[in-house]
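can u pls check wat happens w/ magnesium ion
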Amino acid sequence: VLYDRAKIELQAGAGGNGSVSFRREAHVPKGGPDGGDGGRGGDVILVCDDSLRDLHQLKRRPHRRAERGGNGEGALRHGADGKDLIVKVPPGTEAVGEDGDLLGRRYDLVRAGQRAVVARGGSGGRGNKHFATPTRQAPRFGERGLPGEQGGLSLQLKLLADVGLVGLPNAGKSSLLSRLTRAAPKIGSYPFTTLEPVLGVLDDGERQLVIADIPGLIEGASEGAGLGHDFLGHVERCRLLVHVLDLAPELFGAADGADADGADPNGSADDAAAADPDVNVHAAAGADVHDDGADTDAAMLANYATIEHELAAYDPRLARLPRVLALSKADLVDPERAERALGIWRDRLGESVPVCVTSSATRAGLPQLGMLLFASAQVDESASSLHARDGGELRTDAGSEALAEHIVYRPGGDDGFMVYQLGSGSFAVAGRGIERLVARYDPENEEAMAHLEGRLRRIGVIAALEAEGFQAGDELEIAGVVFELDPDMPG
Ligand code: GDP
Ligand code: MG
């Protein structure tokens, strides 16, 4: 069973508290403040690891937390930073923040070694040493550490193929894949039991291409019929599609009945072609075809249009991918007819779509197809999803830009706050930065509160409150903490 989805709850470590401490020396009755800072809380970091195949480890342990930072201590001892928590995910994992601090963040982990800090640890609080001033030589407060970010993250594993094979059932996709590629145990062992795309690796000695056989593309797939929709999601990262088109559809039509119309050699090509005027077929069906090949060509055209129509309906971005047309099963037709079909399809599709004739039975045309794929996918070593490297940026060739988007939403800034009146003599301030500042100080500690008030003044919060009618003695609430400001404080 493939665990291609998981939801986990993450909690980054809280920062440690700053220490309140005073030097003790034999000859000094009361030394200066020497409270050390708290350590940072650990981050939760996703790391892409290509020894993993699916998400079952995450399913087993859905709650993960990083270590909190140690508290500061006397003699200016800094608290230890909390250890980061590494959560390993397989290549092809898409992570989306569902709630809490993680809401709306999104990460794509494609290559081994890529890292994403998904929940940041809280910063440590500063010790009382930092709050010593000429007028306050013995501060009896320090900062508290901030909580770490937390929230739910949902993960989905997407198949990572560079090249997708599309075509009607029985077009010869599976055969082509198995002949074209060598076994790739690591990748081939994806236990896709339900989705069953099969992956193979095409290797020219230097570069590698991951090719996926995509058997689920049948009429109606784009409307979510059967496995189609879910399934096609796994090819969203492809940079190139090979459309496999049977040269001998009357001999190996859609025997399983999945698409009787499209594969019926006696069916009308006009139906399918007319059903989708956007399909990139220029010439009229049957043009320039020898009498005894006209039906075959019409059937091929209809089959071609069916698949192209499905692609466009499923995802226009997918449909815009560069295409290679493989005319398959050449051994089943005489060479002349294969040649003629090659000419017809080259004319139809123009220069932008390379066309080749292949046979999985005789291996004819397979080396040429392989070369075409490397040329068309324009892969280099760093771009191949098999070549695990560092966590650099995703490839940016034109093909991948369209589909392999790497979106990371960053949370909004911490600046800015809003002041509003709750009732008479009662005000509130909201704003992430302000709330974090308030969380730093112990509300029970008067000295800390006086210090906080000074900070609020300097930031302009008090002025903003006064502009709203706030007066000394009024109540002020920030992040659940209620203050009474000291009217004697300098403005
Ligand atoms: P898929 O449904 O597109 O994956 O098609 P398959 O690869 O499973 O092939 C469908 C049928 O066509 C099978 O019976 C294959 O043996 C046959 N077939 C595929 N490729 C060739 C070929 O190049 N020559 C011949 N003679 N038969 C082929
Ligand atoms: Mg197949």
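The pocket of guanosine-5'-diphosphate (ligand 1) is lined by residues 167, 169-175, 215, 252, 328-329, 331-332, 359-361 (CB under 6 Å).
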